[in-house]
Amino acid sequence: MRIKTFLLIFSMLFACKKDVKESGNVTRLPYFNSADFTPNWEDATHRIPEFSFTNQNGEVVNNQTFEGKIYIADFFFTSCPGICPKLTKNMASIQETYKNDEDIMLLSHTVMPWRDSVPILNEYAANNNVDIDKWHLVTGDKDELYAMARNGYFADEDFTKTQVESDFIHTENFVLVDKKGHIRGVYNGTLPIDVERLYRHIEILREES
């Protein structure tokens, strides 16, 4: 009796482990249409709003720049001593991985536009080997940048709690956007395990028609 019970429990545990493993084999990505990042597997109701900013070379960067591209967006500032160097390092790694892939681009928004002018962004780009054809560092109007972070990319987690417009934005999120401007994933850009998950998801998006 004990042997039969042991075998039954063992078989149930094995089955559970198998189900978990199989469910982890992601073959498609959901859409994220709201700031609570509830996955929607059917409908894409949110698209990145229209924007127009200025990059490190003084050029206009807008939605058309990324039309038909998969891109990763983040928010930073050049004088940040904390998480930003990690974010920049990991974005640089993504740039290197996809340096020969024209369908993958990067977009970093400053959250300190009153300081991060075009010349400062240009110097920062040079110091971090940013490829202008692959990775845009952008500045612009503070209100527009903050609205884009909060309402476009849902990147400011604190704002969803406080709703204080003047609060400084500082987020470690990388946001994955598909070729049609839909958010398909959010990742902690400072964690290697999450960056690896981002790489896997980029490959899934590349397989979409």
Please provide a written account of the structure.
This protein has helices at 2-23, 84-97, 118-127, 142-152, 159-162, 192-206, and strands at residues 31-32, 39-40, 52-55, 60-62, 70-76, 104-110, 135-139, 173-177, 183-188. The strands form two sheets. The protein has a seven-stranded mixed β-sheet with strand order 4-3-7-6-5-8-9, with helices on both faces. Residues 1-23 and 158-166 have low confidence and may be disordered. It is built from six helices and nine strands. It is globular, with a radius of gyration of 20 Å. The longest helix is centred in the N-terminal third of the chain and has 22 residues, at 2-23. By secondary structure, the protein is an alpha+beta fold. The chain has one domain (30-206): 3-Layer(aba) Sandwich (Glutaredoxin), CATH 3.40.30.10.
Examine the secondary-structure arrangement and name the CATH architecture. 3-Layer(aba) Sandwich
> In which range does the helix fraction lie?
25-40%
What spatial form do the alpha-carbon principal axes imply? globular
Q: Kindly state the number of beta strands.
A: 9
GO molecular function, one term: metal ion binding
Binding site for Cu cation: 80, 84, 170
InterPro entries: SCO1/SenC, Thioredoxin-like_sf, Thioredoxin_domain
Family: Belongs to the SCO1/2 family.
